[in-house]
Amino acid sequence: MKVLIIEDEVPAQRYLKKVIQEIKPYWEFLFPLQSVEESLEFFEGNEAKPDLIFMDIQLTDGLSFEILEKTSVNIPIIFVTAYDEYALRAFQVNSIDYLLKPVEEKWVQKAIEKFEAKTTSIVSKEEVKNIQTHVAEQSKAYRKRIWGNTAVSMEALNVRDIACFHSQNKTTYAQTEQKASVTIDFTLDKLEYELDPSMFFRVNRQYIVNVNAVKSIEPFYNGKWVLRLKTMEEEEIVIPKEKAPKFKKWVVD
User: Domain 2-137 sits in which CATH superfamily?
Assistant: First the structure.
């Protein structure tokens, strides 16, 4: 058995591989892929095809469905993602199962058992309905930890301790409550989906803020407001007019 993992987060790649190896120690792993572009190149030019694919849906450069639309991939797929809204679309392709992050070993075990039990990649309407019910019953799991990159190592950060995430020159930073700033391998768009909306708010294109880090807001102009954080009091974060009412309500709810 040859397994291919398509996942843009290196820690998630390693974790998933470790879990699969514990369940199936004799399975082999092809070199992991991290993007739509990289995957297209692999399937169009590589003769060593896997027997099973574990595939994240939202990759750095787009949705992994683009891979399946642009090339012929007749290989069973287990989708691993944080976004349950893609469930039905996933089962319109060669999907065996659909796992929500953070992934638990028992769900990987069940997905592998389903793969081994199948003799065809065709999924019936009844199976789609059953999976839809299963996904609906799972509560959305939001990210609790994230890797921060320092000059010499990767540091595991508790998300609740991060005052804000901000983007500058195509690099994303996490600002901790201790006022330290580290880079992370996420875009703000991806973080917006993975963070608990009761704790984090996308203020504008450059900032996602933690409700516990909010110090004050001040009227600006044209209905805009300026937000100040406890850890970045000198920084003026502009809240657009259309987001201001929702932000005010979010802070006090």
Answer: Response regulator (3.40.50.2300)
Interatomic CA distance for residues 146 and 162, integer angstroms: 10
H helices within 175-227, ranges in order? 188-194
Tell me the pLDDT tens digit for each residue of 8-31.
888 889 999 999 999 999 999 998
pLDDT tens digit sequence for 54-105:
999 888 888 888 888 888 788 888 988 776 655 555 555 557 788 888 788 9
The three-class DSSP label of residue 13 is: helix
Cα separation of 50 and 217, whole Å? Answer: 53
- Tell me if 202 sits within 8 A of 194, measured CB to CB: no
CA distances from 42 to 8, 45, 118 (A): 15, 5, 26
How does DSSP classify residue 236?
A: E
At residue 191, the 3 state secondary structure works out as helix
pTM of the predicted model, to two decimals?
A: 0.50
| Distance of alpha carbon 157 from the chain centroid | 16
CA–CA distance, 59 with 61 (Å, rounded to integer): 6
When mean pLDDT is compared over 37-46, 70-79, 205-214, the highest value belongs to 205-214
Q: What is the mean pLDDT of the chain?
A: 84
Token digits of residue 248: 């005010």
> CATH 2.40.50.1020 region(s) of the chain?
160-252
Question: What is the CATH code of the structural domain delimited by 160-252?
Answer: 2.40.50.1020
